[in-house]
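Quick board copy: two proteins, each given as sequence then tokens.
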Amino acid sequence: MKKSVLILCAALSLGACSLFPPPYKVPVTQGNLVTKEQLAQLQVGMSESQVTYLLGNPMLKDTFKPNEWHYLYTTRYATPDTKQSDATDLTLTFESGVLTDIQNR
């Protein structure tokens, strides 16, 4: 009798957890937040230092392609209030320290 009451209480206790709302998850953002204004100011012919001043340091500089800079942005558990980047995968290509190509995917 005591065992069955204990099992019944345990089953009801565990089932009650589904009645609560899900826990709050903090939005996690990683990368470079690039705005429309920054993208509008970005122009072919800028130097590496000008791009760094405008956008900050890139998220990724490939070892095998040192002339390609990648500005990446990801978000997990985003809410409507979470700031979003206008460029989630921005690739900039340089030749001799001068910006030659802009790809915004």
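And the next:
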Amino acid sequence: MSGALLRNIGAAARASGVSARMVRHYEGLGLLPRVERTDSGYRQYTDADIHTLRFIKRARDLGFSMDEIADLVGLWHDRSRASASVKRIAQHHLEELAQRIADLQAMERTLAQLVHCCQGDARPDCPILDDLSGAKPKF
């Protein structure tokens, strides 16, 4: 490849902020195109591969699933894409995040109530354990 800096997997991992293990994993999932190999079989990554790894890392940091990332990488490389396709994926992920946040907030409220009602003393009565066992708490 003329004009493209080739890096081994360790250098690619450092340059992208992704571990070498995850670089191999992403390659195995097909998120990276097949990479060049030296005569002795070592992988060689280009600047474009590093850029794709950074894209994947950023998408993972935002919590996208591997399937969503695969779709996003495909759209990113497709210059004839419609931004509506990208927005649809991001909107769906945003809605899932909002639901997970609401679920976590509900768990937090329930647990805060249980902790508040537990005396935390030497007595065996404990509304936390009652709730976990399915018994009716004695508030």
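Board note added afterward: Strands lie at 36-37, 43-44.
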